[in-house]
């Protein structure tokens, strides 16, 4: 049963979500600035908070997506099979509450109570996405992309902004980098969500969804994806040359680790026809985003 609960909340995925502030704190903000806004205790509270909302989001999504999952991925279903819908709702409520309390604690200890609104706002978006908006053209994709970007923005708000006056030039570099990472998370997630729509066309159609992949033909969807990938590549090159013109290590890292895989993904996308192929591309995009969010660890040695 424990294994089923782990599968329901996508334990590895939410560990990654909750771990983003920890990685960026210890590998980028703290070494670069020499200080940061979050203490160790606050950082752990933030980790638990993001972990909880990630788990809660996955649970409520599976609750509302039982019919679709029965077609798209029956072997991965938990709600309605090994876990009752009522139990899933209870866990959603418990995790949401714990996450909100911990997020409020971080905001209070950090003297930034105005940011408390972020948590319930994101939670409402997750609920609306799972219940209704995921089946709308691009709206659901954009919501998930936005939520992914906020995980990086939270680091900028809580960990970096409180020490703005300490070292202004370094602060600007750090702040710009986090904003770029947030935009990168948004665009990468948007691309991946559209690819997942291509993968889930069969079940989404049966559920009456009107996703981008269902509303338009495959060729049109692929053309949009290729445009977004080109935009991603262009942005990566532009940011590398604009923010780090004298650091060729950044350009080398960007070209080999981030841009080259995108080119390969673009080729694979053009050739893909089956759901299993789109699933592989989706996995590659997840790894690509992980490498992108870990880029500051490399940048710290070049600045």
Automatic annotation (TrEMBL):
This is UbiA family prenyltransferase. It is a multi-pass membrane protein. Pfam families: UbiA. One of its GO terms (cellular component) is membrane. It is found in: Membrane. One of its GO terms (molecular function) is transferase activity, transferring alkyl or aryl (other than methyl) groups. It comes from the Bacteria. Keywords: Cell membrane, Membrane, Transmembrane, Transmembrane helix. PANTHER family: CHLOROPHYLL SYNTHASE, CHLOROPHYLL SYNTHASE, CHLOROPLASTIC. The chain crosses the membrane at residues 12-29, 41-60, 87-109, 115-131, 138-158, 170-191, 224-244, 250-272, 284-302. Gene3D superfamilies: UbiA prenyltransferase. The lineage of its organism: Bacteria, Pseudomonadati, Bacteroidota, Flavobacteriia, Flavobacteriales. InterPro entries: Prenyltransferase_related, UbiA_prenyltransferase, UbiA_sf.
């Amino acid at each position: 049963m424990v294994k089923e609960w782990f599968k329901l909340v996508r334990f590895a995925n939410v560990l990654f979500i909750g771990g983003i502030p920890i990685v960026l704190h210890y590998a980028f903000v703290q070494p670069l600035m020499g200080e940061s806004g979050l203490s160790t205790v606050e950082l752990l509270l933030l980790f638990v908070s993001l972990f909880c909302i990630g788990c809660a989001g996955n649970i409520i999504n599976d609750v509302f997506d039982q019919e679709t999952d029965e077609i798209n991925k029956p072997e991965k279903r938990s709600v309605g099979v090994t876990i009752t819908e009522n139990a899933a709702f209870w866990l959603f409520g418990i995790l949401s509450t714990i996450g909100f309390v911990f997020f409020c604690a971080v905001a209070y200890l950090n003297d930034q109570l105005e940011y408390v609104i972020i948590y319930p706002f994101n939670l409402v978006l997750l609920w609306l996405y799972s219940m209704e908006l995921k089946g709308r053209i691009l709206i659901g994709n954009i919501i998930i992309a936005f939520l992914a970007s906020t995980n990086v923005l939270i680091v900028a708000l809580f960990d970096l902004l409180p020490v703005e006056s300490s070292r202004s030039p370094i602060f600007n570099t750090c702040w710009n980098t986090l904003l770029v990472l947030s935009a990168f998370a948004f665009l990468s997630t948007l691309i991946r969500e559209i690819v997942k729509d291509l993968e889930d066309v069969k079940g989404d159609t049966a559920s009456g969804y009107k996703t981008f992949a269902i509303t338009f033909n495959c060729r049109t969807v692929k053309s949009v994806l290729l445009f977004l990938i080109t935009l991603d590549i262009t942005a990566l090159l532009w940011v590398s040359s604009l923010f780090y013109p004298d650091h060729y290590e950044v350009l080398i890292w960007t070209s080999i680790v981030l841009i080259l895989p995108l080119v390969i993904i673009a080729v694979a996308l053009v050739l893909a026809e089956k759901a299993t192929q789109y699933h592989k591309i989706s996995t590659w995009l997840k790894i690509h985003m992980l490498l992108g969010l870990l880029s500051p660890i490399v940048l710290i040695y070049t600045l």
